[in-house]
Design goal:
Structural class: mainly beta
Radius of gyration: 16 Å
Order of helices and strands: EEEEEEEEE
Low-confidence stretches: none
Largest sheet: 7 strands, antiparallel
Shape: globular
Strand content: over 45%
Number of strands: 9
Length: about 140
């Protein structure tokens, strides 16, 4: 337990606001900047998404350090997963639907209908690569 808690706790607007979670159970407010420290194990946030640019739809990503949870709060997202053989599979996530992307699986998002997503993703070691033929 934190020996010097802050009372009352700070209150913030949760939209487009991010928190870092460390392995000891601590949380650190990182606001909109998403600047993580090496000790930050997880990034948690809620993001407004209007189009593919908001979710970096032209980029494949994977997280060797752990699974990623994606929750669609509003709108509709298409989660595309890539198998080891390069085959792609789409998962449609409507409002109030979630999926867990397994550790190390390449994936990307497409915004089918604007909304808001909540994510919990490993804070370190993510890999990225541009979609072939993408902008």
């Amino acid at each position: 337990m934190n020996p010097d808690p802050v009372f009352p706790p700070p209150v913030f607007d949760w939209l487009d606001h991010f928190m870092a979670l460390d392995s000891q159970g601590g949380m650190r407010d990182i606001g909109k900047h998403r600047r993580l420290q090496p000790e930050d194990g997880w990034l948690v946030g809620i993001k407004a998404v209007r189009d593919d640019a908001d979710v970096h739809g032209h980029i494949w990503e994977r997280h060797p350090a752990g699974d990623e949870m994606l929750c669609v709060l509003e709108g509709r997202i298409v989660l595309t997963l890539m198998g080891e053989d390069g085959a792609e599979a789409d998962v449609l996530l409507d409002a109030r639907r979630s999926a867990v992307v397994p550790r190390g699986v390449w994936h990307r998002l497409h915004v089918a209908c604007p909304g808001k997503i909540l994510f919990v993703t490993p804070g370190q070691g993510s890999e990225h690569r541009r979609v072939e033929g993408g902008a």
